[in-house]
Design goal:
Blueprint (H helix, E strand, L loop, with lengths): L2 E10 L2 E11 L4 E5 L6 H8 L7 E6 L2 E2 L4 H7 E4 L11 H11 L6 H11 L15 H13 L5 E5 L7 H15 L3 E6 L2 H7 L2 E6 L2 E7 H6 L5 E7 L5 H5 L4 E5 L6 E5 L2 H14 L4 E7 L3 H11 L1
Parallel strand pairs: 3-8, 3-9, 6-7, 7-8
Antiparallel strand pairs: 1-2, 1-4, 4-5, 9-10, 11-13, 11-14, 12-13
Bound molecules: adenosine-5'-triphosphate (ATP).
Adenosine-5'-triphosphate (ATP) binds next to strand 2 and helix 1.
GO molecular function, one term: ATP binding
Family: Belongs to the ABC transporter superfamily.
Protein name: ABC-2 type transport system ATP-binding protein
Length: 304
Amino acid sequence: MSIQVSALSKVYGEQRAVDAISFELKKGEITGFLGPNGAGKSTTMKMITGFLPPTSGTATVCGFDIVTQSLDVRKRVGYLPESNPLYYDMYLTEFLRFIAGIHRMGANASKRIDEVISLTGLQPERNKKIGALSNGYKQRVGIAQALLHDPEVLILDEPTTGLDPNQLADIRQLIKTLGASKTVILSTHIMQEVEAICDRAIIINKGKIIADDRLSALQQQGTASGHILVRFAEPVTAEELAGIPGVTRVAAPDEQHWQLFSNEVDEVRKNLLQFALINNRNILSLQSNSQSLETIFRELTKRV
Ligand SMILES: Nc1ncnc2c1ncn2[C@@H]1O[C@H](COP(=O)(O)OP(=O)(O)OP(=O)(O)O)[C@@H](O)[C@H]1O
């Protein structure tokens, strides 16, 4: 297990910013850390990276304790903090050499700096001062410094803030690629981002974890029904469609389409294809509409 968090808490004065949270993350998994403003995401990330001591509870990264072995933890973690603090007066390569020095990378540094510059798409800007870079490129520098020592675990606090749609797609792709060989945890407010990149989502609200599941399972959770919009080439009756296992209600929104409501949209989709096959009906179009993560997020964080 790459990250093990057990009853971790952080109290600031009177406020319990993180309240006894527990979870485990495996290698090769990208986890989205979601929650409204002030939920405790950054505080949790700072504790896991070994930068902020917890008030109580424990956590290990690659088997090392975040309090008693924080130097070992930092060697194995690449961290992009929320505000992405950079030295604007430094040249890009100068900054990365400085970070390589902190990690005592020695003779390997130059080769690795070239590698991360290429990996993060910074090559066209490599001779500029950091202060002269656009926001998107500054963000790439933040990711490059997090990757420099080739850590096993990447902790990215809102990594795509300030990126334009093209840069967004590039950085998401980069994170996905990195996620194949590393453990990645990223915080974001953007639900589509989690849907685009993550295998799993942990939703935190008021310092407590209120959902932790694979994305597909989370998307099926919730109270509102999903539906399937289907169009057949041949006539079909509402009675026939109502008989398909898992269908809770049938409606006809217009002359050409049927709408099948269900709490198990994926299951009904399979059963519908089977129905068409057995009864010699041809499906002209099929669109399933399950709950978006955004709806689930709003429902869960509202309830608590
Ligand atoms: N150094 C601090 N001193 C006092 N309170 C703090 C400190 N850092 C954070 N907090 C409080 O702890 C709570 C959790 O903050 P945190 O930054 O972890 O939330 P977050 O989920 O990352 O929020 P956001 O999405 O807005 O970045 C907030 O109410 C915040 O005001």
